[in-house]
Design goal:
single chain; 473 residues; alpha+beta; Immunoglobulin-like; 2 domains; 14 helices
C-alpha cells in the first residue's frame, strides 16, 4: 500500500512540475487613443528584454500569453507617436482599457546637436541603409512565429490557414534567396471554399504545365474538371504568388534584400523612390524619424515570373530611429501608374493598389529582427458574370463577389541565437508548404501566442467553417 501511494505521489509531482513549466498568465485588453477614443491598431505589446509579444488588431484588442517565470518583469505597450504604457506583468489589469497619449518630439530641440546629421529624408534613408550591417543580425538565428493567411472577397472569406512557423536566416550579409528557410510546424485552422472560383488559375496552370497557349478560361466548364486537378492548380498558383518563401526571399522583403543588385532598396533606391522628412515622433521614449515615401523617375518592376508585375510607383512611410538609424517600421504600397498596369489592375482587380506591405522590427540584444509583417495583394480569379459588350446589363455583375485579395500576417514571438539549437533544427527536414494538411495538436496551441482576430474576421471565420469543403476527406 505504501509503494502504491509513493508511485502516485511521484506521478502527481511530475504532473505538477510539468503544469508549472507551462503555466502562463493571459493578458488581454483594448488599446485606445486618449484624445480620439479610437482603437489603436498594430500597437506593440511585449515583455521588456524578451521577444514575448504580440500586436493589437483593428479593434485595438490583443491577447498575450506570458510564462509565469516573467510575471515580475515589465510589460510595455507602445505605438509610434504615443507615450508608452508600462506595468509589471503580475499587476496588469485585464478589465480596464489602456489609453495612450500622443507624444511628438520637438524639432527645435533636436537640431541643437553638434554631430553632423543628415538633413533630408533621402539622406536619412541612405544613412539607415549604410548602417544596416551594424543594425541587422550578423549571424544565423531562428525565429518562431504565427502565420494567418486569408483570402477573401468583399463579402466573405474563401480560404483561411493559421500555422505555427519557424524561419531560419543565416544573417544580413548573406543572400536571402539562398539563406532564408521556412518550416510549417503546426496548423491550427485550414478551411477552403475556392473549388468553384479558380478557372483562371486552372487555365494558367495548364498553360504552364502543358504548354497550351491558346486556352481561355471562358472556354472551360467547372463541372468537367476533377476537384483533384483543380487543387493542384490552386496550390501551384498559391506557391508562386503567395508562398512564404516569396514573401521572405523576394523583393518585398525590402530591408533584408537590400544587398541584392536588383533590390528595391538597393543601390538604385532613389531612382524608384523619393523620401521626405515629415516630422520626428517618439517610440517608447526614443526619437524616431517619420519619413514619407513617394515616387521617383523610374517605375517599379517586381519581375514576377509569368505575371506582369511592372509599372508601379511607391508610397507610404518609413520610421527610422534618431540615435542608431535603425529601421523600425515600413508601411509600403505599390500603386499602378503606367497605362498598361492601370488598365490591367482596373480590369482584373478593381483597384490600383496592387501590393500593400507593413514590416515592423523589434530590437533584441542590439539587433533589429522582424516582428510583425502584413502583406496584402489582389488575387486573380474567375467569379460571377462579367459584361463583355458595351451596354450589357451590369446589374447581375457583383463586384463584391468577383474581386478577391489575399492577406498574410506573420507575428514572430521567439528568437533563438543558440548555435547548437540552430544546428539541431537544420538537421531535420524543412517544409514551407502552408497548404498541406497537418494533424491538429490542441496542447501545442494552448501555450502558443497567436494574433487575435478582429470582430469582423471572427464572424467571417465562423461562416467559413460551416461551408468549407475543398480539402475535406
Amino acid at each position: 500500500m505504501k509503494i502504491y501511494s509513493l508511485k502516485h505521489f511521484i506521478a502527481l509531482t511530475i504532473l505538477l512540475i510539468g503544469f508549472s513549466a507551462f503555466s502562463q498568465t493571459e493578458l488581454k485588453n483594448k488599446i485606445v487613443d486618449f484624445g480620439t477614443l479610437l482603437p489603436i491598431e498594430s500597437a506593440s505589446i511585449y515583455v521588456k528584454n524578451t521577444t514575448i509579444g504580440t500586436v493589437s488588431n483593428s479593434d485595438g484588442k490583443f491577447v498575450l500569453l506570458v510564462p509565469n517565470e516573467f510575471k515580475n518583469d515589465t510589460l510595455i505597450i507602445s505605438s509610434i507617436g504615443y507615450k508608452s504604457f508600462k506595468t509589471p506583468v503580475n499587476e496588469f489589469d485585464n478589465s480596464l482599457e489602456i489609453y495612450l497619449e500622443e507624444d511628438i518630439a520637438s524639432l527645435d530641440e533636436i537640431v541643437l546637436v553638434a554631430e553632423t546629421r543628415p538633413k533630408t529624408g533621402n539622406d536619412i534613408v541612405l544613412r539607415a541603409l549604410e548602417r544596416l550591417p551594424r543594425n541587422m543580425p550578423d549571424s544565423s538565428y531562428l525565429q518562431k512565429g504565427f502565420l494567418r493567411h486569408k483570402e477573401r472577397n468583399k463579402k466573405e472569406f474563401k480560404w483561411l490557414i493559421e500555422s505555427a512557423i519557424t524561419m531560419y536566416d543565416s544573417g544580413y550579409g548573406s543572400n536571402a534567396a539562398e539563406n532564408i528557410k521556412i518550416n510549417v510546424d503546426q496548423v491550427r485552422k485550414s478551411y477552403d471554399l475556392r473549388d468553384v472560383d479558380s478557372l483562371l488559375t486552372y487555365t494558367a496552370y495548364l498553360q504552364d504545365k502543358a504548354n497550351i497557349r491558346n486556352l481561355k478560361a471562358r472556354n472551360l466548364r467547372r463541372d468537367t474538371i476533377k476537384t483533384s486537378s483543380l487543387v493542384k492548380a490552386i496550390k501551384w498558383n498559391d506557391t508562386r504568388v503567395n508562398g512564404l518563401q516569396n514573401l521572405f526571399q523576394g523583393k518585398l522583403n525590402l530591408v533584408r534584400n537590400s544587398t541584392n543588385s536588383k533590390a528595391l532598396f538597393g543601390k538604385n533606391i532613389l531612382d524608384m523612390h523619393q523620401f521626405e522628412l515629415d516630422t520626428v515622433l517618439v517610440d517608447n521614449d526614443r526619437k524616431i524619424y517619420k519619413i514619407k515615401i513617394s515616387e521617383s523617375t523610374d517605375y517599379i518592376d517586381l519581375k514576377t515570373k509569368g505575371i506582369f508585375n511592372d509599372g508601379y510607383i511607391a508610397n507610404g512611410w518609413i520610421y527610422i530611429y534618431w540615435d542608431t538609424y535603425a529601421i523600425k517600421k515600413i508601411e509600403y504600397q505599390l500603386i499602378a501608374k503606367s497605362e498598361a498596369q492601370k488598365s490591367r489592375s482596373k480590369a482584373l482587380f478593381d483597384t490600383q493598389v496592387n501590393h500593400k506591405l507593413v514590416m515592423n522590427y523589434m530590437e533584441y540584444e542590439g539587433k533589429m529582427y522582424p516582428n510583425y509583417i502584413y502583406y496584402e495583394t489582389p488575387k486573380l480569379v474567375n467569379v460571377g458574370f462579367k459584361p463583355t459588350k458595351q451596354g450589357e446589363d451590369e446589374s447581375t455583375y457583383d463586384k463584391d463577389e468577383r474581386y478577391y485579395y489575399t492577406v498574410q500576417e506573420v507575428l514572430f514571438t521567439e528568437i533563438i541565437l543558440d548555435q547548437e539549437k540552430i544546428s539541431q533544427a537544420l538537421s531535420r527536414p524543412w517544409d514551407a508548404d502552408i497548404f498541406s494538411v497537418k494533424p491538429y495538436n490542441k496542447e501545442f496551441w494552448r501555450n502558443y501566442n497567436t494574433l487575435l482576430e478582429s470582430e469582423e474576421d471572427e464572424q467571417l471565420i465562423q461562416d467559413l467553417t460551416k461551408r468549407s469543403s475543398l480539402y475535406k476527406d
